[in-house]
Amino acid sequence: MATGILKNIVPQITSWLGSNNTIKGDEEPPKANRESNSRIASIFDTKHDQNISQSTMPTIIKKSKAAAVTAEPGWFDLEESTQKTIRWINEAGAAGCKLVAFPEVWIPGYPYWMWKINYQESLPFLKKYRESSLPSDSDEMRRVRNAVRENGIYVSLGYSEIDVAALHLAQVLIGPNGDSLNHRRKIKPTHIEKLVFGDGAGDTFEPVTQTDIGKVGHYNCWENMNPFLKAYACCQGEQVHIAAWPIYPDNTTHSPMDPYTNVSDPSSDIISPAYAIETCTYVLAPFQHLSHEGVIMNTPEGKRDSVESEDVYNGHTRIYGPDGQLLAKPDKELRRPGVRGHRSRLVPSAEGAGGFRRPLYEE
Question: Are the C-beta atoms of 186 and 223 separated by less than 8 Å?
Answer without folding.
Answer: yes
